[in-house]
User: What shape does this take?
Amino acid sequence: VQLVESGGGLAQPGGSLRLSCTASGFIFTRATMRWYRQAPGKEREWVATISETGSITTYADFVQGRFTVSRDNTKNTMSLQMNTLTPEDTAEYFCQVIVNVRDYWGQGTQVTVSS
Assistant: This one.
């Protein structure tokens, strides 16, 4: 199983970024996928979940309608569109999957929101 995140970078407050997670090594169409994030000095926290087909998405309360998780099962990718970013969104963002009762994580992509 391999998960590779991309798309992080520097954004201004109020700006947008789109993160991607490219997956391999498992049957992507059978996997619920998740985004997490970890800010400096804080515990990792859940951001969003998307079901196998993409028909069901759930979000952490702090997202407040600003983020949209999606997936392309033809390309084995999951995305996180992040809008109206604030400095509090600064964190390393990770994609995660459970395969055969084992947790797998990507290496993360850094998002920094600053003026």
The mean pLDDT is 97. The longest strand covers residues 91-99.
